[in-house]
Amino acid sequence: MLGCTYGNVFKTTVAGGSYQEGLTVHLQGVPTGLRITEEMIYRDLLLRKPGQGELTSPRREPDVPVIYSGLNAADTMPGFDNKGKTNGTPLVVLIPNLDRHFEHIEQYQVTNRTPRPSHASYASYQKYGENDDAIGAGFFSGRYTSTIVAAGAVAKRVLRDHGIDVFGYVKEAAGVRAADLPRGEARAKVEAFREVRRRHDVIYDWVFGAQRFRDDMRFLEKMAVLAELEANLIEIRNSAEPIDMEAVCREAGVHPLLNCPDVDAARAMYKRIVEIRDEGDSSGGVCEVVATGLPAGVGEPVFNKLDGELGRMMSIGTIKAVEIGAGMQVKDMRGSECNDQMRVKNGAAVFDSNHAGGITGGLTTGQDIVVRLAVKPTPTIAKDQATIDKVSMENATLSAVTRRDPTIVARVWPVAEAFVAIILLDQLSLYYGYRALQERVTG
User: Fold this and answer.
1) Confidence of residue 51 (pLDDT cuts 50, 70, 90)
2) Out of 3.40.50.300, 3.40.190.10, 3.60.150.10, 3.40.50.2300, which CATH number does the structure's domain 5-439 have?
3) DSSP type of residue 179
4) Which pLDDT score, from 0 to 100, does residue 104 have?
5) What is the pLDDT of residues 177-214, one digit of tens each?
6) pTM, entire model
7) Terminal-residue alpha carbon distance, the chain
8) What DSSP letter does each residue of 116-176 carry, written as one string?
9) Backbone torsions φ then ψ of 67, nearest 5 degrees
């Protein structure tokens, strides 16, 4: 594979597969002096991982990350306080697979000759032949998106130092669309959801709450903890107390399984997703990501315009469309409606609307960046589907028997949030580099 790296200054390279030993993310361009921890990264990973209720696959991957390189092992000189901080070398994060069972491998082996319609399994076999990593869909499984989330956690940490905030949520699911809320209210609801998920995550409690992972532990010591986790994974996961959904909605103001700031819409989404699942089918939706605090002028025309870079989120396997600002609605607008008219207030430019989604000419305007992603229904469904035997090239019928998500939208929003952060950090690095060169021009 030649397409596993993204970025110019903040470079992200990912590897691994669904049933390989695990996944890795290799980051270059991380500033020095940052305190990055596994707990910080896991707080984002727990939002994406499976096995968290009726809206996700029952696979129990804990997705506990291990930082392998890129941090100082000790204070480098007497009087220095840089132990555990980034040192400028590539930051490498491992995400081991701990929930691989032979009975599931057998199920994949039985069905791998008959590719799932709308999944990559036919096309990947044509490209990679008989050695295609088809167990659990390999690199084309949603498992690989954990690497994006881990990279995004680091990127968001850097962006926060520059006053930039990135947050995502479910805007639409199974045909139910959430109401538009003020940015501040939506942001607060997303934060409340994140805290609810952390409080109810038994893996977080077992690994980090109980301090089984500590900053001063060696790699092999952490591996021993993960081996213990793997051996007791089912018992630990089963120790989780059932979530009282109505109590959480009432007390925290958010739905505990669906990150949608409009709690009434979230309830309706949940109900409809489950109804479609019970029919043996799956459903799609829309994720929205908002970024605030970017200066005007970020982006690199012509071929690296910021909106073009955000379009790269089509590389998330389940995404079929990306729109910015008013998106597809612009086709029905007049110029007088679509244009974001400007005026001066207190010596600064302000806009009367944001149909452009914060980007014109491929450059930020200083407004909020608003991106939406269309998420297709999960290809694996509990209904017979017409397919082929990809080896013998005969017609066949596929009945799905593997573990599946009734919808992907409930888990893909943190991936979208992370990807936006990765893109913005890379573009911001280019922006500051260009500005620094400009400031040194003497004429």
Assistant:
1) low
2) 3.60.150.10
3) P
4) 67
5) 999 999 999 999 999 999 999 999 999 999 999 999 99
6) 0.95
7) 46
8) PTTSTHHHHHHHHGGG---GGGGGGSGGGHHHHHHHHHHHHHHHHTTT-EEEEEEEEETTE
9) -80, 120
